[in-house]
Amino acid sequence: MSAKPTADGTPQKRLNFDVPEDLAREFKAYAALNGKTQRDLVLGFMRRCVHRTPPATQDPRDSPDAPRDR
C-alpha cells in the first residue's frame, strides 16, 4: 500500500526499516541541530545516490563510505 500523495499530487511510497537505536538517536539529533527533518535528510541522500550527485556540503558523515558503528 502506498502512502498518501503530497499536496501537489506526487505519488508516495512508504519505506519501513529497522535501524540501531543509537544510530536513530544520533541521526535525530543531527537533523535537529542542522534544522532539517529526518525525512528531508534521507530523501536528499537517496537523491544523491540515485543521481550520483555530490552533497551540497562536504560533510564526511554524508559519505556512503563513512563508518557507521559509532
From TrEMBL:
Family annotation (Gene3D superfamilies): Met repressor-like (1.10.1220.10)
Q: Which InterPro entries is this protein grouped with?
A: Arc_rbn_hlx_hlx, Ribbon_hlx_hlx
* Residues covered by region (Disordered): 50-70
Q: Which domain of life is it from?
A: Bacteria
Q: Where is the composition biased (Basic and acidic residues)?
A: 59-70
- UniProt-recorded name of the protein: CopG family transcriptional regulator
Q: Which organism is it from?
A: Paeniglutamicibacter terrestris
